[in-house]
UniProtKB/TrEMBL annotation:
The lineage of its organism: Bacteria, Pseudomonadati, Bacteroidota, Cytophagia, Cytophagales. GO terms for cellular component: cytosol. Pfam families: Fn3_assoc, Glyco_hydro_92, Glyco_hydro_92N. Residues 277-740 form the Glycosyl hydrolase family domain. The keyword Hydrolase applies. Its cofactor is Ca(2+). GO terms for biological process: carbohydrate metabolic process; glycoprotein catabolic process. One of its GO terms (molecular function) is carbohydrate binding. This is Glycoside hydrolase family 92 protein. Gene3D superfamilies: 2.70.98.10, alpha-1,2-mannosidase (1.20.1050.60), alpha-1,2-mannosidases domains (1.20.1610.10), Galactose-binding domain-like (2.60.120.260), GH92 mannosidase domain (3.30.2080.10). Monomer. It comes from the Bacteria. Residues 37-271 form the Glycosyl hydrolase family 92 N-terminal domain.
């Protein structure tokens, strides 16, 4: 944790420290406004990825300083480790794990004109300026900093669609405001232009490719005094007094003469539609150049939103953490339409939002858990518009948002978590939208065959060899299916209710009773080995997403009681959670950036763990939840800049704290129950939109009294360890008496929250009980052989008979029964089924055995390569000719990975052989920068010098992601040849739609198969 030491001599000049204003108000017994408790600097250090600049609730503009634009800790453009500022741009992401935005940057300078930002190491080489953190100030809707190099104080504020700057210049003939349209955070400008449209106005466009692969930001910028002159810059060339400047790196230099401490105000309106839309936004929201008026309006707007929850008791630090968390939870999603309701849709056509406000930035893998449930309490109108925006995106693109950004579906993360957000509103009676259309969208998401859902829906799980992150995807899809089922039930769609309810139980197919974990298995039902529950895998590789088996072992919020039963009952389940907290808090297996805030293997810094801490309530030991919740709030949230233990993630990290500090949490975000925890404050009042208040009172509450001793609700004894949404909406008072030791409160079964995917009373009529027979599998290490091979078949299902064919026909019980290994002497397709004693058959297994040339340790076939090996992704000396196929896991050790070079390999068979075909496999995993070759050529020779091409195949760069698949390129051969050569040429650069745009892609190659 960083500590800041401030001289008493300069203290009177600082209004940047939130705690100072809070303390002053307290001493004078004056009620502080809610904004006085908010410190936007929290989360700007460590890995919080927040920004400190000016915005209003859910605003389209986030006007904030940029200190860096590349790298993990600069996803928001700002990090507290820096001491120089590049300028102030109008769009920023809050707490995300990827970077983008940073559009339309302004920077005030004095003296020599510089049009490049320069480096952190040497700010003097560009227009950057040094600054000191003690000379920064931030509060909701306001930011200020003193730019040391120019003796300029910069102030920022904002309305929904307009950013307002005020720059206090020294006396000079050489004052400048740089408008940099090339600048962006981890993206690339693809079209930029500006036009001078008045003595104090310029308009223009920044169109970029990054995480949002095609983003439009039009702008109108008006200055409070006429320009002295203006210059344009394009392709490094300066243009004096331009009217129009176009290119992909355009900048404007606006020049002024200023008096001492003269303030120039710049108001910049943005639009995703047009310059005309930006102008309408400006005219509607900021008519003059009164900076303080806009600043005060922003403060008032924030106070109205923050006042939805009123806390009493607790110390000033607690209130700062709480209201800053509440503030962070309401930065996103962002308005994404002009004041005339025009907006850019998912197909990039222009639409008009009829009767709702259109929004963008849906980080749903994060925010479905607590952020959107918080909105159902304190921002139900906005939440309804969020959902209407999701449905509109479905109508325009054919799919609900997964991780949408500025009318671009990024496809980031897993699940289809628009579903619980939509379902929650419907089930809580807040569904003020077309519910039949919403259901149509939910069904389309549930039946989408991509992203492993085809396997989930047909097999009941995702085989590990077919899709990366198979376990994480499987358990999250199961939850999403449950919420679809609940909407189906609500709308009277009985058959759909049954179908999706059964799918919601698919998580059970991944439970291994021997290890006690949800883990991966292949399509034949064989558990994936080796298995290490501590091993962390990343998005796009391994069996888990940004986590390990511990993090995902408890994700079945739709069926917690069923999960408890899988683990052997209450005591065994409690022990399993205890074990999670008692594991080592480190992991040497390529620790993911996101897996932070560890208590054992509980990871508060990433979302999969967030609900786990409340699960003790369901097993009858709520006091353990109470203790751990307080521990997390005390250790993982502070009022310093490094006060977040992980990415803020568009409100989820903060929403977890808001709920937990109030004393309850939505373990299942859509079932209308909240598990009770251990509140921080003596009293919390939620002011609901229906006019009712819900109050949580905690008597004798302090840092030591973390345990609930007893409770009452509206004056009557209350032994439940949960409350319902209906109770909150109706209003009332729940009183909790706190103490310093665990109590018996809430232990009885009747007191516990319950969670069944299918209510026990409906189980017989809803749950399918058909017997499962897995496909047979082969015990052979590989399907590639060089002479003969003995094939042996097995099945994980006990007491089954196996039948097979080798002539291409589909096997049945009249086919050959397997009773001993059989021999193959040529390339053959083996098909097999397993049948149990009741005649239930498995699906057909299909094994394509290849008689081919590969290295067996003898001198020939001999592999030679003409590319430089990578130390991390190296399949070994003969790894691409060892007779074993790689899987779709990029880290399985069987792939040769190369970048920035052609992949050229030659196989010498030792003598001419009669050949029939050659193939080579490549892994495509676009999220991890792995692309197919741009071109692959196969050649043959008899002398090793003169080669004849037998085929060239070309591919096209994909226009979307993520894609994870293995492609084998094949060419026929006719004749006798000794040498076979393969040359694979990579694409020059990752495409503009990708977060890694402009970087070099990777080629991952696998087995060369010569038949």
């Amino acid at each position: 944790m960083r500590h800041y030491f401030i001289s008493l001599l300069i203290l009177p000049f600082l209004s940047s420290c939130v705690k100072n204003s809070v303390t002053k108000a307290s001493k004078e017994n004056i009620p502080a406004s809610y904004t006085d408790y908010v410190d936007p600097f929290i989360g700007t250090s460590a890995h919080g990825h927040t920004f400190p600049g000016a915005t209003v609730p859910f605003g389209m503009v986030q006007l904030s300083p940029d200190t860096g634009i590349e790298g993990w800790d600069w996803c928001s453009g700002y990090h507290a480790s820096d001491n120089s500022i590049m300028g102030f741009s109008h769009t920023h992401l809050s707490g995300t794990g990827g970077g983008d935005y940073g559009d339309i940057l302004l920077m005030p300078t004095v003296g020599e004109v510089k049009t490049e930002p320069g480096s952190k190491e040497n700010p003097d080489e560009g227009y950057r300026s040094r600054f000191e953190q003690v000379k920064e100030e931030a509060s909701p809707g306001f930011y200020s900093v003193f730019l040391e190099d120019y003796n300029v104080t910069a102030e920022l504020t904002a309305t929904t669609r307009v950013g307002v700057h005020r720059y206090h210049f020294p006396e000079t003939e050489d004052a400048h405001i740089i408008v940099d349209l090339k600048h962006g955070i981890s993206d690339s400008a693809r079209e930029t232009w500006f036009q001078v449209t008045g003595e104090n106005e310029i308009v223009g466009l920044r169109r970029s490719s990054g995480w949002a692969r095609d983003q439009y930001v039009y702008f109108v910028a008006q200055f409070s005094k006429p320009f002295k002159s203006i210059q344009g810059v394009s392709a490094g060339q300066t243009i004096d007094n331009p009217q129009n400047v176009k290119g992909d790196d355009v900048k404007a230099v606006v020049n002024f003469s200023t008096k001492q401490d003269e303030a120039i105000v710049v108001k910049v309106a943005i639009s995703g539609v047009s310059v005309q839309g930006a102008r309408k936004n400006l005219e509607a929201e900021v008519q003059d150049f009164d900076f303080d008026k806009v600043k005060n309006q922003a403060k008032t707007t924030w106070n109205e939103k923050l006042s939805k929850i009123e806390v009493e008791g607790g110390d000033q630090v607690n209130k700062t953490i709480f209201y800053t968390a509440l503030y962070h939870s309401m930065i996103a999603p962002n308005v994404y339409m002009d004041v005339d309701h025009n907006y850019r849709g998912m197909d990039h056509k222009i639409y008009k939002a009829e009767g709702f406000t259109n929004y963008t930035l849906f980080s749903l893998w994060d925010t479905f858990r607590a952020t959107h449930p918080l909105f159902t309490l304190i921002a139900p109108k906005e939440n309804n518009d969020f959902i209407k925006s999701m449905i509109a995106k479905y109508e325009q693109s054919g799919q609900l948002p997964i991780w949408e950004l500025s009318a671009n579906e990024t496809g980031t993360m897993i699940g289809f978590h628009s579903a619980p957000v939509i379902a929650d509103a419907i089930l809580k009676g807040q569904g003020n939208f077309d519910q039949e259309l919403a259901y149509q969208a939910l069904v389309a998401a549930a039946e989408d065959p991509r992203r492993g859902l085809n396997w989930f829906n047909s097999e009941g799980f995702i085989p590990v060899e077919k899709e990366a992150n198979a376990v994480s995807k499987g358990v999250e899809y199961a939850y999403d299916m449950w919420v679809v089922a609940q909407v189906a039930k609500k709308l009277g769609k009985t058959e759909d209710y049954k179908k999706y309810s059964n799918r919601s139980l698919n998580y059970k197919n991944l439970y291994d009773s021997e290890t006690g974990f949800l883990r991966g298995k292949n399509m034949y039902g064989v558990w994936d080995e080796p298995f290490d529950p501590m091993a962390i895998s990343l998005l796009g590789a391994g069996n888990y997403t940004e986590g390990n088996a511990w993090h995902y072992n408890f994700f079945a919020p739709q069926d917690i009681n069923g999960l408890i039963e899988l683990h052997g009952g209450d005591q065994a389940f409690v022990k399993k959670i205890d074990d999670m907290f008692s594991q080592e808090a480190v992991n040497d297996n390529h620790m993911a950036h996101d897996v932070t805030g560890l208590i054992g293997q509980y990871a508060q810094g990433n979302e999969p763990s967030h609900h786990v801490i409340y699960l003790y309530n369901y097993a009858g030991e709520p006091w353990k939840s109470q203790a751990r919740i307080r521990q997390v709030m005390d250790e993982m949230y502070t009022s310093e800049r490094d006060g977040l233990c992980g990415n803020e993630d568009c409100g989820q990290m903060s929403a977890w704290y808001v709920f937990s500090a109030m004393g309850f949490y939505p373990v299942n975000p859509a079932d209308g129950q909240y598990a009770i925890g251990s509140p921080v404050f003596g009293k919390v009042t939620i002011h609901l939109d229906n006019g009712n208040d819900f109050v949580i009172e905690a008597e004798n509450n302090n840092v030591n009294n973390t345990y609930i001793q007893s409770a009452s609700f509206n004056g009557s004894e209350y032994d439940k360890t949960f409350i319902t949404h209906n109770q909150i909406e109706t209003g009332g008072v729940i009183k909790l008496t706190m103490g310093d030791t665990p109590s018996e409160w809430g232990k009885e079964k009747s007191a516990r929250p319950t969670s069944y995917a299918v209510p026990p009373s409906e189980a017989l009529s809803i749950i399918d009980t058909k017997e499962e027979v897995f496909r047979p599998y082969i015990t052979n290490k590989s399907v590639i052989f060089n002479s003969t091979i003995d094939v042996s078949l097995k099945d994980v299902t006990p007491e089954v008979d196996i039948y097979y064919t080798i002539d291409g026909t589909t096997p049945d019980i009249n086919s050959t029964k397997f009773d001993k290994p059989f021999k193959l002497e040529k390339s053959t397709v083996v098909k097999a089924i397993a049948v149990n004693s009741k005649g239930v058959s498995s699906k057909v297994s299909d094994f394509e055995f290849k008689k081919a040339y590969f290295n067996t340790g003898e001198e020939y076939p001999k592999l030679s390569i003409n590319y430089e090996k990578n130390a991390t992704y190296d399949a070994g000396n003969n790894g691409i000719l060892d007779g074993v196929y790689a899987s779709d896991n990029l880290r399985d050790g069987k792939w040769d990975g190369v970048s920035k070079q052609n992949l050229e390999a030659i196989v010498d068979l030792g003598q001419p052989e009669e050949l029939h075909q050659v193939s080579m496999g490549f892994l495509e995993n676009t999220s991890s920068w792995l692309f197919l070759p741009k071109k692959i050529e196969f050649l043959v020779s008899n002398d090793g010098e003169n080669y004849t091409s037998i085929g060239i195949q070309e591919t096209k760069m994909p226009n979307d992601h993520p894609i994870i698949s293995v492609t084998r390129f094949t060419e026929k051969i006719a004749g006798e040849y000794r040498y076979v050569k393969v040359i694979a040429t990579p694409f020059e650069a990752i495409p503009n739609w990708h977060p890694g745009a402009g970087n070099n892609p990777w080629l991952f190659s696998d087995e060369i198969v010569i038949e």
